[in-house]
Amino acid sequence: MITESILEEKCIALQKRLNCGIRYNRIRIPRPFFIEITGTPSAGKTTVITKLDTFFKRKGFRVLCPQEGAQAIRHIERTTPLYSIRTALYALPILINLSQGHLYDIVIFDRCLFDSYCWMPYWVDKKQMTKEEAELYQKFFLLHFFARYLDAVYFMVCNPAIAIAREHKTSLTKEPGRTTNPKTLQELKEYHERAFEKLSPEFPHLYLFDSTNYSEQQMVTIIGNQLIEVFYAKTFLNPIEEIT
User: Fold this and answer.
1) How many CA atoms does the CB half-sphere of 216 hold within 13 Å?
2) Domains of the chain: which residue ranges?
3) Number of helices (H) and strands (E), helices first, in the chain?
4) Residue range 85-101: average pLDDT?
5) In whole angstroms, what is the distance from residue 47 CA to residue 154 CA?
6) Which helix (H) or strand (E) segment is 190 a member of?
7) In the CATH scheme, what is the code of domain 30-237?
């Protein structure tokens, strides 16, 4: 028969063995750094994410690149605002869950919360959503409760003609897509630029990157170096204790 005192002693011993005081202490073991790369089609998002993943892993960091919402959400047509909402809701629980633990050092999202924000005006212009509905979703996805976890967000844009030329290099067809045509690409570029202009005063960790005149290597080098500086500053120069 195990007495209450013996049970207490054994539980304390197990907690020490598991380092519970350290394991769940978010000050001693910080949460991961979170990056969101969003932007217009063929602006270089996938290339940058792939290269950043390789770079940080080779530097000894444990990195996760969650599957993009567009790859995970296949059962909803892209012709409805429900698609933009659902893909953001796909990324949101990943962000929240990983922010509460220490599984990874760096998490790189291919589109997350700010992506949905940028798409809302598109659906308003297509008359598939009211302005009030769009603003409601925008406010929700940028709530402080979870948007604060994104340490760096890049809005990547590109000249439509250059973007289409990049698309054709690796595409099996040159037939224009719903979003990969000059008119829509220009519209999306303007949506992202306007969103950046509006949000950057409130979110200083936003960056607008026009990849038009950059090679793949230049894009990765510039963004990679900038991210190191951002992480270093947040950790050592301007550390802010998070309130959960």
Assistant:
1) 12
2) 30-237
3) 11, 5
4) 96
5) 13
6) helix 182-199
7) 3.40.50.300
